[in-house]
Design goal:
homodimer, 335 residues, alpha+beta, 2 domains, 10 helices
Chain lengths: 335, 335
């Protein structure tokens, strides 16, 4: 069934039924002019919004709708994780052409719903519209004690710079998707492809780093390790040195490196985007507790460099201790 | 200057500067992964989201960018008004083609900023993306005491049905815009055209009706008087009778009626959308206080019908007391 035969009223009614919310803090979810929720006094309310647009952020033929749904929510959840918060509620606006089939929307919602349940977020509002291109806009609300919030601006001199997981895999996955099409989902690098299509927002890690007060600053890696680290040091009035040899490399990335193909792994790891891993800074004394957290969460957390004086800027150091020109790493966002 | 030469980083930096927020409850607006605001305990948090997409909701050549900015925020503010709340914060995601000029974005922001100031809403977050069509997605957060919230579901039998302003003007304006192009902004019906391009969210009226506990149910008229009234009676388990002769008619609409042109005024008033006026219900005993409020706000507020038993459904009654078939009014949303 095509959605043009379906009508917005019915789509919203189905949505409200699928995402039926029973929660003492939700007085009204979908079904009125605005959602109504009850706030805890003195808590920080976190709010973030993202938009995914067909042919800008994804290609419909390379992206199963269920995974598009998951990702659209994951990228906003990741922003909440990067503040150290817990996700509470979310709203979603979806635009699509009338020629889209009902199955597509069902899969999209299934993806959103699955990710929402995993992260404990409740749908409280939404909106649908006709659109030439598929467009998914999400807004996530989170909460946490005011004094636990981890901003980008807290990095201190000599702090270590850490990353969760193995950044660069998403960019590797995208490279392979572009080259081999949707078949790459079943190819030898399928894990990397799935890291691109279905990134994991690091909710538990972000929240734990905030509660245990282990991180002085934090950001999620949406635009690449170096660009996001640059944002942290700019906000903190600091510089940073990244050691190329310290970068965590996944098994898949290692296999890819063995093939000796372009783009080079260092490009992917340092400037590949959309990993939605966390990058954070912490004083060296916190290292044992961060290692313990890493074990507890079964999540790789790796120190990749150090915060230095502002005037040193942002540097990448090779295995022999010499500086590597960032431009030659294919990192083109900088001017 | 074209925006493709501009870069997202710089756009967001400019945005953060233009909308610089100093407020004791805003700990972090733009410039981190998520915004951080402080909540009042026990208050209801209202949240609503809308999306305007070029060629679905507006035509770029008929819509000055400043007014597009105003309207994109107004329609979400209107949802907060329809609950009886005050607007607090908002987030905005904007997608646009790289060929759009910097001036366009400046005007769009100016429009958003102007409307935000008028309604006391603060920008706390946002997002920009490349997009084939101009896309503006807004999320507005509002607040109010839990026991003052006015839902759609509270309409009681024999309550009067009221509307603010003169619904139908927006649809008249759109009709003229489509017919005469952007020149209609300076034509004889320019007020109606401006009601379409720059609707006023009824923040003061909505809030006052809630604080004074005058309304038993409320909705904003986004899809037409009858369709939105239908939503109220469905949520309230009631029926409603609308008297054609009671409908408020603006001077412009009267002049238009004199011309004897299609579409008929009744079509426009009953089923024209995008007025963003409020429709609410209230027991008859509240009439003197509603009239007093109308005078105080210098805003026309008119009773147009009455809530009746559910099994009577939704009826429109003509001047001679006979029922008018809704279909013949051009009201095609129903099946």
């Amino acid at each position: 069934m095509f959605l043009k035969e379906f009508g917005e009223e019915r789509i919203i009614r189905e949505l409200a039924e699928k995402f039926k919310v029973r929660h003492p803090r939700v007085l009204k979810a979908i079904g009125d002019d605005a959602s109504v929720t009850v706030q805890k006094g003195g808590q920080a309310l976190l709010a973030t919004t993202d938009i995914l647009i067909e042919d800008t952020h994804f290609r419909a033929r390379l992206t199963p709708p269920c995974l598009l749904g998951r990702k659209s929510l994951s990228i906003s959840l990741s922003d909440i994780a990067a503040m150290g918060g817990s996700a509470l509620f979310f709203l979603v606006s979806i635009g699509f052409p009338g020629s889209v089939k009902k199955d597509f929307l069902d899969s999209l919602y299934k993806g959103i719903s699955g990710r929402a349940k995993e992260c404990g977020a409740l749908l409280i509002g939404g909106n649908t519209a006709r659109s030439g291109k598929i467009t998914v806009s999400t807004t996530v609300l989170g909460e946490m004690p005011v004094d636990e919030v981890v901003y980008r601006s807290g990095a201190g001199k000599n702090d270590l710079v850490w990353v969760t997981g193995t950044p660069g895999e998403s960019a590797l996955g995208l490279t392979l998707l572009k080259k081999h099409g949707a078949g790459a989902i079943r190819g030898p690098f399928k894990k990397a492809v799935m890291r691109h299509l279905d990134p994991t927002p690091r909710m538990k890690a972000g929240r734990a780093l905030a509660v245990k007060r282990l991180a002085t600053s934090m950001i999620d890696i949406s635009d690449g390790v170096l660009l996001d680290l640059k944002r942290v040091i700019e906000a903190s009035g600091a510089g940073a040195v990244v050691e190329l040899d310290s970068l965590p490399v996944s098994t898949e990335m290692r296999d890819y490196i063995k093939l000796g193909k372009r783009p080079f792994a260092a490009d992917l790891i340092l400037s590949g985007g959309e990993d939605y891993e966390l990058l954070f800074t912490a004083p060296e004394k916190n290292t044992p507790r961060i290692s313990a957290l890493s074990k507890e969460l079964k999540l790789r957390i790796t120190p990749i460099g150090r915060i230095v004086d502002k005037k040193k800027g942002l540097k990448v150091i090779g295995p022999d201790g010499t500086e590597i020109k960032i431009k030659s790493l294919g990192f083109e966002h900088f001017k």
